[in-house]
Design a protein that fits this description.
Elements: H1 2-18, E1 32-36, H2 43-59, E2 63-67, H3 74-81, E3 89-94, H4 95-104, H5 112-115, E4 116-132, H6 140-149, E5 155-158, H7 164-176, E6 181-184, H8 188-197, E7 202-206, H9 207-215, E8 219-224, E9 250-258, H10 263-277, H11 280-289, H12 298-318
Parallel strand pairs: 1-2, 1-3, 5-6, 5-7
Antiparallel strand pairs: 3-9, 4-7, 4-8, 4-9
Helix pairs in contact: 2-9, 2-10, 4-12
Length: 325
């Protein structure tokens, strides 16, 4: 009888340990939404959907990706900043909304530090300088020569004014001392459609969004924009290797919640996303997309956002870059 009681107590303790331990606030009971600031088909959307599938299984509740495209991701960030801080609404935070917008848009309606709680960095990717397959200029040197031969005529698409692709182009123009036409879109999906169709010639597209089209041969990869080659594209040379020392223009993604998200919920989410990022099948997808260096603590992500904001504020100032509000 005593042995049965001990076993029953041990079983009860094991059950208790298996339940998510969120003491400060109740865990959100309904579906959890991850808001993406770009249309389906882009890099942010792709990574959010990888997370949503795994977290749905882990939490045994629906995790839904919801697309709210516009203003290079700022529209979605503004929306999430105004939602209840109960864990039911999260943002797939992005370099555009959290590092570029503060210096490009003085009238920004939210404060990154006040209105958001960083949860976890999901990944940092190079951009890929990609070309339509019919373009003759297929190296950085040749593209620079083309831009100099046809100033203000060569077209580069981006996911929107003030986007990571736009800023990578501006950095390229500054360093190469060339002029080119910036063609903004409402996300990577429509940009890639037009690039493959020949309506635009080039783009510093996110590696996450560009990779499937590079692998299928629908677009050409000319260069990548980190100083080291991504594991997923070992044969694509960097901008540095093609004559642009120190050229680094990344796109990054992470989960964030509204500004009063309880610390206990944010911490539980951080721990679980770290578990997801360590799964072999997820790691394989991240490597394919070029998304590296993700995971870690909430504090790491917060410090990363601050460093990126300061870096791009200097680029915006030095290049006198302005975007339409």
């Amino acid at each position: 009888m005593q042995r049965r009681s001990i076993l029953k107590a041990a079983a009860g303790a094991a059950t208790t340990l298996a339940v998510p331990q969120v003491f400060a606030q109740p865990w959100p009971s309904g579906p959890i939404r991850i808001i993406v600031g770009f249309p389906p088909g882009g890099g942010t959307d792709a990574l959010a959907r990888v997370l949503s599938v795994k977290l749905t299984q882990m939490w045994n509740q629906q995790v839904i990706v919801e697309n709210k495209a516009g203003v290079a991701g700022v529209l979605a960030a503004d929306y999430v900043a105004q939602q209840a801080s109960d864990g039911t609404t999260l943002l797939m935070a992005h370099i555009n909304s959290h590092a570029l917008a503060p210096s490009l848009q003085p009238k920004l309606s939210y404060s990154v530090e006040r209105d958001f709680v960083p949860i976890v960095l999901v990944g940092v990717t190079p951009n890929l300088l990609i070309a339509n397959t019919n373009e003759a200029a297929r190296t950085v040197k040749d593209i620079v020569a083309l831009c100099k031969a046809k100033p203000g005529q060569v077209t580069f698409g981006s996911a929107g004014n003030g986007s990571a692709q736009h800023l990578a182009l501006e950095l390229f123009k500054l360093q190469a001392k060339v002029d080119a036409i910036h063609v903004p879109y409402k996300g990577s999906g429509p940009l890639l459609t037009d690039l493959m169709g020949g309506q635009i010639q080039y783009s510093f597209e996110t590696m996450t969004a560009a990779t499937p089209h590079v692998k299928s041969g629908k677009v050409l990869a000319v260069a990548q924009t980190r100083t080291k080659r991504a594991k997923g594209h070992p044969n694509v040379p960097t901008m540095e290797e093609q004559g642009f020392p120190g050229f680094e223009a990344t796109t990054w993604y992470g989960l964030a919640g509204p500004g009063k998200l309880p610390s206990a919920i944010a911490q539980k989410m951080n721990e679980d996303v770290n578990k997801v990022l360590a799964m072999p099948d997820v790691q394989e997808k991240l490597d394919t997309y070029g998304a590296e260096d993700g995971g870690g603590t909430r504090e790491k992500f917060a410090a990363f956002i601050r460093a990126e904001t300061a870096k791009w504020a200097r680029v915006v100032k030095d290049g006198n870059i302005k975007v339409e509000s």
